[in-house]
Every structure is written in C-alpha cells, then in structure tokens.
Design a protein that fits this description.
Blueprint: E1 34-39, H1 50-57, E2 58-60, E3 66-68, E4 72-76, E5 85-86, E6 94-95, H2 98-108, H3 115-129, E7 136-142, E8 154-155, E9 158-159, H4 165-186, E10 191-198, H5 210-219, E11 223-226, H6 234-237, E12 248-251, H7 263-275, E13 279-283, H8 301-313, H9 316-319, E14 322-325, H10 330-336, H11 340-365, E15 381-386, H12 397-404, E16 405-407, E17 413-415, E18 419-423, E19 431-432, E20 440-441, H13 444-454, H14 460-475, E21 482-488, E22 500-501, E23 504-505, H15 511-532, E24 537-544, H16 556-565, E25 569-572, E26 591-594, H17 607-618, E27 622-626, H18 640-652, H19 655-658, E28 661-664, H20 669-675, H21 679-695
Parallel strand pairs: 1-4, 1-14, 4-7, 5-6, 7-10, 10-11, 11-12, 12-13, 13-14, 15-18, 15-28, 18-21, 19-20, 21-24, 24-25, 25-26, 26-27, 27-28
Antiparallel strand pairs: 2-3, 8-9, 16-17, 22-23
Helix pairs in contact: 1-3, 2-4, 4-5, 5-21, 7-8, 12-14, 15-16
C-alpha cells in the first residue's frame, strides 16, 4: 500500500520509576482541554437544568462580556443521596444493585436535565455566541462493583456474585453497553460521548479487574478516565497507564480542603504529574468564595488563589489537561456572588480556560477548514482486497470468510465490513496498472486480462457474493447491501504502446486518448458487473489507484464526470502527505482516505498516527486503518502492538465514532489470524471487530 514513507526520527529517553510507570516528563494530554466535574444523579444534587449548567458552558465577565467556557463535562456520582445507596466501595451505605445502576442511567439521560439540558443549552447559546471553537464532549461515570456483594442482580438470567471477578467485569460491561446504546439513541446535536470514568479514586478494591474493563471501554470507541487522590495512592496513580490501562488520568493535589496541608503538596503534585504524564485537577468548593474574606476566618478563598498561582508558575495552564472540581455547586455559587473578590477570581479562571481552548483550536485548525472528517456516504467500513495480480491469492469463498464475518471468543458471529475495494498496482508479471511499480506499462490486453480476473467465476467478486449468501444462511441477513468499489487502471502519461480503440492507436501523451481508454474500461467494468447478476453486491464506486498526483497530475478531474454520470462515487487513498492530497476535492473525488503509513516500520513513532489524523481533519479527509500479517502475536518482528496503537489513536481522535474508514490489511492477515488462534490473536481481532460492529449502530455513521 505504501508508495513512499516520510521518515520521522524520534528518540525518547525513557526510564522506569520505582513504581513501574514510565516517566514521560510532560503533563497529561487529552482530547479535551478543560473537563468540568458535574456531580449528578443523587437526589441531594442540583437537577442540572439549563440554568444550573449555564455557568459551566458560558462565562459572563464582570464587564458583561460572554464567551464559551468548558469544552467537556464529566457526569459522576457516588451515592443515590438521601436513600444512602452506594455506587462504589468505601462509600457508606447499602450496596447498589442493578436496579440502582439503571436508575443512574435514567438520571443521566433525563430529557430536560443533565445531558439533555446541556445539549439544548449549547444550541441556545449558539444563537448569540455563534459556534464554539470546539465540539463539546462528555464523559460518564460507571458504578464500581461492591466487593462480595451477592444481590446485585442478573444478566441473561444468571445471578451475579461479586466475590467472583468475572461477574464484576460482566456487570461493568453491561453498564458500558447500556451507556453507549442510550447515548446513541438520544441523538444529541452538540455533544459527543468520548469516555467513561472509573468512580473509585484508588484501586484497592477493584484494581485487578480495571484493565479488562478499560480494554472493553476502548473496544467501544471510548476512552477510559480516572482521577486518583493524592495521599497513600502512589502504587495506583503512578501506574495509571502501563498497568491499569487508563487513557487519561488527572491527579488530585487535595490541597484546598485542609488548612494544615502545606503548599508544597500542591507544588509536588504538579511536579509528579508532569513526571508521570498525569493531568491535574483544579479544586475548589463553595467555601472558595471570599465570603468577605477580610472578616471571615473560615473562608478558603486564599487556597483557591494558591492553586491559580501555582498552576501558572508550573506551566499547568500552558501544557496540561485539567479537570475542574468545584464541589456540587461551587461554580454556581461563585458566579452568583456579587462580591468583587469572587468576580475577580472567577474571571481570572475563565480567562485561562478561554485562552486554552482558543489556543488549542488555533493549533489544531492551523487556520484551515473544515477540521472534520467527511460524512459517511454509501460505505462506512471499506476493506481493501488486493486481487488481480498473478501473485495474489485467488480470493476464493473460503478465503473471504474472515473478511465477511468475525467469530468472537464467546462463539458469537457477526458481520464485518459493508464495503470492499478490489485493487492492484500491477499484473504481477512486470507491468504497471499504476505508475512507478514496474519497468513496463500494461497495455490493452493486460487491462482486459485484469477485467477477466475481477469477474472470474469462483473467485473475486463471484466468491464474495457466494460467501455472503452462505453467511446469511448461517447468521441471518445483515440489514445492509454489501457495496463494491472497483479500480480504474491508470492511463500512464506518454505511454504509446497501449493499443487500439475503435481502430485508432492511442497515444497517452494526448489527454483525449487517456480519457478514451479510461472511459472504455469503465464501460467494460460496469457492463460486466451488471451482467454478472450478483445477489448481494452493489457497485457504488471507482477507485483511483495512483496514490499521489506526481505522474498523473490533474488527470483525475477529467475522468470524474464520466464516473459520476454512471451514478458512481470516485474514491482515492493517498499515502501520508502525498503530493496533491490537499487538492482531492478539486480532482473530483467524492471521498479520500489518508494513510498514516505507521504500521510498517518500527522506527516510525506513534505520534505519526496523531499527525496523520490532524492532516485528515485539516483537509476534510477520512482515515485509513493499516495492518498486515505482521500483527500476529509472538512472531519475529511482530507489529501486534502497532495494530493496537492504531485502535488507540482512532479512539483518541474519535475516528471510530465520526469518520468513514478504509482498512488496509495486506493480503493474508485475517486468514493468518484465523490459522493462528492463540488468545492474543483472538483478543486483538475481537477488539478490532467490535469497533466495526458497534459503528453500525452509530446514527452519525449512517450510510445513504
């Protein structure tokens, strides 16, 4: 798939601390800049109506100016409130059951409160403030199983016993499934669900199950969040990523709450967070208001000022993701105060937040648009099938099976891709179907041979059609039509030996001759496809096989109208930073996917994935996922971790939840995974397949 790679040299000096966590010497980063903690659920909390949430969404300065504030919101809860039912170990009260877990979900998803109110409030404020510089996101907490509880309830008719770790995990997975399902069905216009939050601030009770739960959260396209407290918690908070597999963690300094805690603890928390890659929590409550501090010895106002001063001194506002703890009503009460001290401090905090998300928006956008992935058109998940060249596999019905449906570890089988791209670069015998791969260029006879390969009985399209029919008989109708994209060979500039068309010898130094050959091939392609009468396949697109615009320059735009005239889409997948990638729409392409080109070389750092996504977003492109048979676990030079790195990055940047995706998997990878059924291979394929399965129920990724 790779035509060229831009090599990035990076050296990271890593050492391990006494606790085992990798020292990174930078603060934690996150897709959000500033996440506000909203204690919601218990009947002792605010209802979190639009009025309750307004001070968190928009800030009104003392001079009357208004601006957007927090870009993310964490909704969390420890107990039901007055009834005293606990959602975590360590909270005094009766252990919560499945009934209370469902009740908490109901509270989160009330139509005119909490998430519903937040979504409507953002819509309302857009009318006066315009669009915010960021997409608002939410993180929702999940309850933690209470040790040895035996009355939680049943899943699939089986009573769970929380003295059994597997039952704890089952309950948490059930909650995550419910959470995702309810959020998707809610259809919010202005907020995205990006993660779940582990409610326990230390892992004494559930540390053993947290990694598995976090893996499951990521399999849903979400991130796993955590905010550990400071004291006597080192064994957990410094292992947050390597051992417990959280995606983002913020350390609580816990300086605000007790007067005898020295400022050194606040400063140490900043230094430790930077050392171990943690974000920071900013902490205050209602008693942070000045309450005429000059005469009230109980005011904690000065400790709030200390946080702001230390965070400024330590560069936290410049470098770190921040979680904002303001108790139950701290932000509300601070904004309601008319005391000039309070107005001064809340304005000071707001200026930092607004500066941070405006700076981030400028950095991400680089003053470019659209900064979004393209909308899904006819295909959501497009599998690349390398077929045609003489050295490729035949692509029989058996070979297609792992690409059509996946069998999970629990025995359940489900459909995978909804689209397939058949492509090749050469005939496998030394002739180019795209420029730059062989010494000789393919002529008309080879183009016709390539057509015969695509429509060969018992192989290729025919085999895929039969495989889908067989899978339908086994697991039922998928509920969608499998769509096909076929490749147009490149009429290579200056080629003079292609052959004749309608009695005329074509010369590809002439644009009209290149167009004539291309249109002839497209006619052959569409006529043969229609004549084949496939039961399960629909031709929806044509692929431009040259991965840059060096040799072909602007030729695609001369072919695009003919493709569109046939009711087909024009598809392109340029390599990383390929020449002309930013001009894909000018060339008449309907969809372009950006290749990260990270998987294939171990010296390419994981940051390449972030960079590739940024480029795609800046240019309105979709993304390509890449792996091949080297993803097999335990083989020499295994790239197993690099395949996981793609999934981690696609979760981190919301690719799975918002972008069409093309999947490069080499020629054998899924077949080889099936032939090597070790637990690790099953696990990574289950994770991969779960993303695709879940994407089908995401209303934002609905196909036309």
């Amino acid at each position: 798939m790779i035509k060229r790679l831009t090599t990035i040299a990076a050296a990271l000096a890593l050492c391990l601390s006494m606790f085992g966590q990798t020292e990174v010497n930078r603060y934690g980063t996150d897709p959000t800049s500033d996440i506000a903690l909203i204690y919601a659920g218990g009947d002792h909390r605010p209802q979190w109506t639009q009025d309750d949430l307004r001070p968190y969404v928009v800030h009104t300065f003392a001079n009357g100016d208004r601006d957007w504030l927090f870009d993310s919101f964490l909704f969390l809860e420890f107990t039901t409130g007055t009834s005293g039912i606990a959602f975590q170990n360590g909270s005094h009260g009766t252990p919560s059951t499945k009934k209370e877990w469902e009740w908490l979900l109901d509270r989160f998803f009330e139509e005119d409160a909490k998430l519903g109110a937040l979504d409507k409030l953002i819509s309302e404020e857009k009318k006066t403030l315009g669009n915010p510089p960021m997409r608002h996101t939410v993180v929702l907490s999940m309850p933690a199983p209470i040790n040895n509880q035996k009355n939680w309830g049943k899943i699939d008719g089986r009573k769970l016993d929380f003295s059994n770790p597997a039952d704890k995990v089952a309950a948490c997975k059930w909650f995550v499934d419910e959470l995702v399902d309810r959020f998707n069905k809610a259809g919010y216009e202005n907020i995205d669900l990006i993660g779940t939050y582990w409610i326990e601030e230390a892992l004494f009770s559930n540390g053993a199950i947290v990694p598995e739960i976090n893996d499951y959260v990521r399999s849903k396209g979400l991130r796993a969040y955590w905010i550990p407290y400071y004291k006597d918690n080192e064994q957990f908070r410094f292992n947050w990523k390597d051992k417990y597999r959280f995606d983002a963690a913020y350390q609580q300094p816990n300086y605000f709450f007790e007067r005898d805690i020295p400022m050194k603890q606040l400063e140490d928390a900043c230094d430790e967070s930077k050392k171990y890659g943690l974000g920071l929590e900013m902490e205050f409550e209602t008693q942070g208001t000045s309450r005429a501090q000059h005469s009230d010895p109980d005011s904690y106002y000065q400790r709030l000022i200390d946080y702001i001063d230390v965070f400024e001194k330590k560069g936290v506002y410049d470098e770190s993701a921040i979680a904002w703890y303001s108790g139950t009503k701290g932000m509300i009460d601070m904004n309601a105060s008319t005391d000039p001290y309070d107005r001064g401090v809340i304005d000071r905090m707001a200026r930092h937040i607004i500066k941070r998300h405006n700076r981030r928006a400028m950095q991400d956008a680089k003053v470019q648009q659209p900064m979004t992935f393209p909308k899904v058109s006819k295909i959501r998940d497009l599998a690349l099938i390398y077929q045609g060249g003489a050295k490729r596999i035949d692509w029989t019905q058996d070979q297609f099976e792992p690409y059509v449906a996946h069998k999970f570890a629990d025995g359940k089988k489900d459909w995978l891709f909804d689209g397939y791209l058949f492509l090749d670069f050469s005939d496998g015998n030394g002739h180019n179907l795209a420029p730059g791969y062989c010494k000789e260029n393919a002529d008309r006879k080879i183009w016709e041979w390539y057509l015969d390969r695509i429509f060969e009985k018992g192989k290729s399209l025919d085999a895929l059609d039969k495989c889908i029919s067989a899978t339908k008989a086994e697991i039922g109708d998928p509920g969608f039509k499998h769509r096909i994209v076929l490749t147009l060979p490149t009429a290579i500039t200056d080629q003079k030996d292609w052959g004749e068309l309608n009695g005329k010898k074509l010369d590809f130094s002439n644009t009209d001759d290149k167009i004539a050959a291309s249109e002839w091939f497209l006619d052959q392609l569409t006529e043969r496809f229609a004549a084949a009468g496939y039961k399960n396949l629909e031709l929806t697109g044509i692929y431009w096989v040259d991965e840059d615009l060096v040799a072909t320059r602007d030729f695609p735009k001369y072919i695009a109208p003919y493709i569109h005239g046939k009711g087909l889409e024009f598809i392109w997948i340029p390599y990383f930073r390929a020449k002309g990638h930013e001009r894909w729409q000018d060339m008449g392409f309907d969809m372009a996917y950006h290749q990260p080109n990270h998987f294939f070389h171990h010296d390419v750092p994981d940051s390449r994935l972030d960079e590739a996504v940024d480029i795609a977003l800046a240019n309105g492109m979709a993304m390509e996922f890449e792996c091949d048979s080297k993803a097999l676990y335990g083989i020499e030079g295994s790239s197993y971790d690099r395949m996981n790195a793609y999934m981690d990055a696609f979760v981190r940047h919301h690719v799975f939840s918002t972008s069409p995706i093309a999947y490069y998997t080499g020629s054998y990878s899924f077949i080889d995974m099936l032939k090597n059924p070790c637990p690790e291979n099953q696990k990574i394929m289950d994770r991969f397949a779960r993303f695709i399965v879940d994407r089908r129920s995401n209303p934002r990724l609905k196909t036309k």
